[in-house]
Amino acid sequence: MPLEYDESELCQITRLKKELEAALGRNGSLEKENQELKQEVARLKAQISSLKAHDNERKSMLWKKLHNSIDNSNADASDFLKVPELGLEAENVYPRPSFQELAVRKERQSKVPKPPPRSNSFISPSPKEVSENKVKAPSVPAPPPPPLPSKLLACSRSVRRVPEVVELYRSLTRKDTNMENKTNAAATPVLAFTRNMIGEIENRSTYVSAIKSDVEKQKEFINFLISEVQSAAFKDISDVEVFVKWLDQELSSLVDERAVLKHFPQWPERKADALREAAFSYRDLKNLEAEVSSFEVNPRESFNSELRRMQALQDRLEQSVNNTERIRENTSKRYRDFQIPWEWMLDTGLIGQLKFSSLRLAREYMKRTAKELQSNESSQGNTLLLLGVRFAYRVHQFAGGFDAETVRAFEDLKKISSSMANHKQ
Fold it and tell me: What keywords is this UniProt entry annotated with (predicted)?
C-alpha cells in the first residue's frame, strides 16, 4: 500500500523543507563572506610584508652607515653610545652620527643648499606665487587625464576575452572541486627595539646641543627646502622619484630629520610624505613589472618548482594591483591636491601595463604544462591539465582577456585536453 501522510505530517514536512532551504541559504552567504574575508586577510598580509621589506631595507642601510662612522671615528668616541634611532617610520629614518661628529657639527657653518634637479615637466612657481599660496589655497582645477600611450593602446586593443578559457576551466573544475592552490606568505620576523636606549641617547647633552645647533645654523637651508617642497609641482611621476631622492639626500645632512624639522611648523610634512609615498609606490610597481616582463623559464629547473615560481609572481602582481586599486580613489585626490602625478595608478597607466605583463606568465605556464603533458603518460595527466587551465583562467580574468600569442598557447593546451578525452573514450 502506498505510504499516506495526514495533513499535520505534510505541514511539518513543508516546514522542515523551508527551514532547510533557509539554512542552506544562510550557509551559502556565510561561505561567501568567509571567502571575502580570506582574500582581505591575504591582501593585508601582503601589504604588511611589503612594508616590513621596506623597513628592513632602510635599516640595513642605516647599520651600514653606522659601521662606517665607527671605523672613521677616533678612539675617544668609544665612550659614547652609537646607535641609530630605530623607532621612526621607514621613509623618515636616517642614521645618527657619533656624538663626536655631533660635537664637530655644532661648530660648522650653515649648509649651502644644493638646488633640486629640474626637468621639462617640473613646474616651480616664483617666490611671489609661493608667498601668495601660503595665504590663499590654490584653486586650480584638476588637469584632465593624459591621452592613452600608444604602446599601451596597442596592448589594450590586442587583448580580448576568450570564452573558451572560461568554458574549459568550468568543465574541469566540475570534475575536481577539491584542488586548491595555496600560497603561504613568507613571514618576516618582528624585531624588538629597546626604548630605554633611544631615550638615553636623546637625553645626552651632546646630542641635544647638536639638534639645537642645526635648528639655529641650518635655518636658511631648511627654509630653502620648505620653499622647494611647497612649490614643487610635477607632470611626470619619474620626476617625483628624482626629487624625492634629492630631498632625502639633503635632509640626511641633519643630525635628526624629525627632531630638527619639528622646530619648523611651516615644514609641509603632509606633502613631503605624499611625495615619498608616490615615489616609493611607483618604484616598487615599476620594478615588479620589469621582473615579470623579463621572466624566463629555466629548463634545468623542475616542473613543480617552475610552476610555483610563476604562481608566486602572479600572486605578487595581483596583490600589488589590488592594493593600488583599493586606495586609488582617495590617494589620487590627495595627489591632485599636492600637484603630484596620479594617472599612473589608472588602468591606462602603469596598472594596465602590469595586467598586460601577466600574459607572459600565462603563456609560459601553459607551454610548460603542455610540454609536461606530452612527456607524461601517468595518471597525473588530469591534475596537470587542471593546473594549467586554472592558471590560464586566473590570468584571463585578471588581465581582462588574452592577446593573440596567449590565445595560441591556450589552443595548444586545449588540443591536448581534447586528445586526452578522446583517448579515454
Answer: Coiled coil
- The letter for the amino acid at 251 is L
233 DSSP 8-state letter: E
Instruction: State the DSSP code for 86.
Output: -
Q: What is the DSSP string of 25-62?
A: HHHHHHHHHHHHHHHHHHHHHHHHHHHHHHHHHHHHHH
What DSSP character marks residue 81? -
CA angle 239, 242, 244 (to 5 degrees): 110
Nearest to 57 by CA among 90, 30, 12: 90
Which tens digit of pLDDT belongs to each residue from 262-293? 999 999 999 999 999 999 999 999 999 999 99
410 with 402: CB under 8 angstroms? Answer: yes
Residues 6+ apart with CB under 8 A from 275: 229, 232, 240, 243, 244, 247, 338, 340
pTM above 0.70, yes or no: no
- State pLDDT tens for residues 122-159: 554 544 444 444 444 444 444 554 554 555 555 555 67
Instruction: Give domain status of residue 17, yes or no.
Output: no
Helix (H, G, I), strand (E, B) or coil at 402: strand
**What would the DSSP string read from start to end of 238-281?**
HHHHHHHHHHHHHHTTSS-HHHHHTT-TT--HHHHHHHHHHHHH
Residue whose C-alpha is closest to residue 328's, from 344, 310, 352, 309: 344
CA distance 268 to 113: 18
Grid coordinates representing 372 are 609536461
Nearest to 271 by CA among 342, 225, 338: 338
Report residue 384 as a C-alpha cell.
Answer: 596537470
Within a domain: 135 = no
Q: Which domain holds residue 319?
A: 214-424
Q: What CA–CA distance (Å, rounded) separates 216 from 109?
A: 11
Q: Are 335 and 278 in contact (CB under 8 A)?
A: yes
Residue 54 domain-assigned (yes or no): no
Reported as type and span, the H/E element at residue 122 is: strand 122-123
Whether 304 is covered by a domain: the verdict is: yes
Give the contacts of 59 (CB within 8 A, at least 6 positions apart).
86, 93
Q: Report the first-to-last Cα separation within the chain, whole angstroms.
A: 45
User: In whole angstroms, what separates CA 387 from the centre of its chain?
Assistant: 27
| Total domains in the fold of the chain | 1
Spatial CB neighbours of 91, under 8 Å, sequence gap ≥ 6: 273, 276, 277, 280
